[in-house]
Each structure stands twice: as structure tokens, then as C-alpha cells.
Amino acid sequence: MTSMDKRHQEGLEIQLNDFAPTVRKQALEELVMMEKAGMIKNPAPTEVANMHCHTFYSFNAYHFSPSGLAWLARKNGYALMGKVDFDVLDGIEEFLHACDRVGVRGSAAIETRVFFKEFATRELNSPGEPGIYYHMGIGLTEDQAPEPGGSILADMRSRSAVRNQDMIARLNKYLYPVYINYDQDVLPMTPAGNATERHILAAYLNQADQISSNPIQFWSDKLGLPLDRAMLLYQDVPAFQNQVRSKLMKRGGPGYTLPGSNSFPSVQDFHRAVTACHGLICAAWVDGLSAGEQAMDEQLDILVSQGAAALNIIPDRNWNISDVEMRKVKVDKLYQVVDLALRMDLPLNVGTEMNTYGQKLIDDFNAPELEPVRQYFLDGAYFIYGHTVMQTCLGLGYHSSWSQTFLPTRRERNSFYTQIGKKVAPGPNGRSYLAGIVSQAGGMAHVTPGDFITKG
Prior knowledge:
single chain, 456 residues, alpha/beta, seven-stranded mixed β-sheet, 18 helices, 7 strands, 50% helix
């Protein structure tokens, strides 16, 4: 590659994360054409997966758009990649199209917080907040939700905006003379108006740098930290941001208020929204240490009875720990929950999140601690891609009447969609393969699961 081509590639990669969809689309097409012309040499896909990556439609610490995330996977040779965003379906179609264009097996998801009434008095996966549960819907294929999903998701987005503005009102009083305006300082940081705590944090950090003559002294005072400690933290961007967020926005902080049963949608309402979108309800696990996660079998029994079909794990925070004793505890908890998920026929959805500075672009699948569970992680990634490609191309996803007829148990469905995920390539070749199988069978009314696995 010439230096001019290299600079052009770098410019296009910046454009991939532009807020304008047309700019992103054109940049991706040019990059694909450059690769086809041999001007860009990307590595062959490696069997690794990151199925839990936030984009700038909620918050991505590296500013990746859906198209930027798909190209990241292609550029680095990641075989499978999944996007997830808080409270919205924005960018799903863009991401799945981009993955098809670059030859990456892709999936899309939504994440939110819900009220889990059966655990109202126990902490789950939201630290310090009994009954509040981070929950997911995976395997989504469209930006628009059919009813009742559309109304439920609109309510979720509205509640989020109210919570954000209430937090800002409290923090503006505490941080004066540093203050921000939601419409002017926060929303412009988002492509579609879906702001998160992390956008609010970034806005306050920006304002402190602009308004205060000595930002380190300002934060030392507001966070109650010795000046030398604040100075050291300030030089470590991820640690400093986490400290500010923890001190100001989490329990005990001036911006925090304890959520209640009406702060978030119920588990059941969120399930209705995900099911309306032909997605899969996905439970979420942190590290097995909270009271609610020490009763993980009870938790999953309830969620499975309500339709949960998978379990999300963020592996890196369960083994990549400097404290040797805590690492042993958390790795053991990781193995325990993987074993529980397998016994309950729940495929695994794993990833790194990418919504905090310093988080990895991909899990270290070669880490000794992950070796015993590596294949289960990969099988889960193939499973969710298998559902996604069948739903997108043929409408024969996990919850279809076709699937319920031919694959009545979760174990049968898990096996089938995992095999499809491995067999069907992304892009036009995969679509042609699936269309050809249906044609050989004499149409949709006659095709069976075995046709997809044994033919072609």
C-alpha cells in the first residue's frame, strides 16, 4: 500500500464514525472496494468473537458507529461481532448490512435496566440497587419495533431522558460553577438523542476543562481527594473517569437517587418488547458475588419460565484481575455459571462492552483461564448469528412457528442454529445458500432443519 492509499484509508476510517449515515455508508463502500482491489490487506478471519459491543448510539468509548464496528472486526480478522445499545434499536440494520458487506458474522442486541420484582430486596447485577437488573434482548434484525414493542421502547427512552435531566439538575448544584445544559452540551454528543451517564460524565469533564482555571484542583475539591492523588488519577484517563462517575453518579454520590419499582420497565414488559421484535431474551451475569447472583439457579429458573433463551457474560472482568485470590474466586464463579447455563440449555453471549475507556476490543481467547470455556463462548456466538441470518433471510428464526414445529426443545434449537451459524457464510454467498436450500425443498412449506444442515 502506498502512503497515499494509507492516508486515504485512515481518512475513510474516520468517516466511518461520522454522525451522518450517508457519510458512513460511502466510507464503508470505498473501504470494501479498496480491499477487493488489493489496496488493503486485511487478515483472514480468526475464530474469535465479541458479541457485546456498544456503539455511539448509546456510548462507545472509542467512538465506533455500527459501520465502524463492523470494519473493526474485518480489519482485525474477528470472525464474529455483535452490537448492543442501551434502550434503542438504532443502527441495527446498518450494522447487519455492514457485517454482510465486509464478511463478518454479525448480531444485534438491546440492553436496558428493568425491575425484577421477585428479587426486589436483593442486589442483582446493578451494584447497590436491589431489584434493578441489567437485561438484554439479542438476535434483533430491524430498527423499528412492531407493537407492543414500539410503545414499550418509546417509554424506556422517555424514562431515560427524565432520569438524565434529573441527575444533571442535582449535579449542576453540586459542581457549580461547572454546570451543563442537557440539550446544548449532552445531546449533541449523540447521533440520535440517546444519551447515557457516560455522555453526561464527558460533558462535565469538558466543561471543567473549559471553565476552571485549575481542573485538577476543582476535581480534588469536588471528589474529596488529596491533590496529589487527584493529579495522578487525572493522568490515567480511564481510572479518572471511573472515579468521577463513581463519586458523583453512583450510590452515595450527589447526582444519585435510589431507583424504585417504577424507575424502569418491568421484566415482563421488556420481554414483550423483545419478543415482538423476534429477538431472544438474554439474562445477564456479572461475577456471582451479589446476593441475587448467589441465587443464580433461582434467577434463571424464573427468567427461563418467562422465555429467556441465553445468558450474557463479560469474561474479562472475571479473570483479568491483579488480585490473585480474587481472580481465583471469580474464575471459579465463571466456571460455575457456565456449567449452570449449559445444564439449562442457555447459549452464551460474550463480549467486552467497549463503553468504558480501557476495555478491550476483543477478549483474550487464548488466556489459560478461558481455555475450559472458550468453545462454549464461540458456540454461543455462532448460535446467535445462526438465528440472525435465518430470521433476516427467511423469517425462520428461533421463535418462528417453523422452529417451534420442527425444533420443539431449546436444546434442539440451540444445536440447529449453532450449526447454521458455522455453516452459513455472511453476505451474498450465505443468502444464496439459504435460498437454494428452500428452492431445492420445493418452497418454504416443505423445507426442514435437516435440509439446511445436510444439503448444499
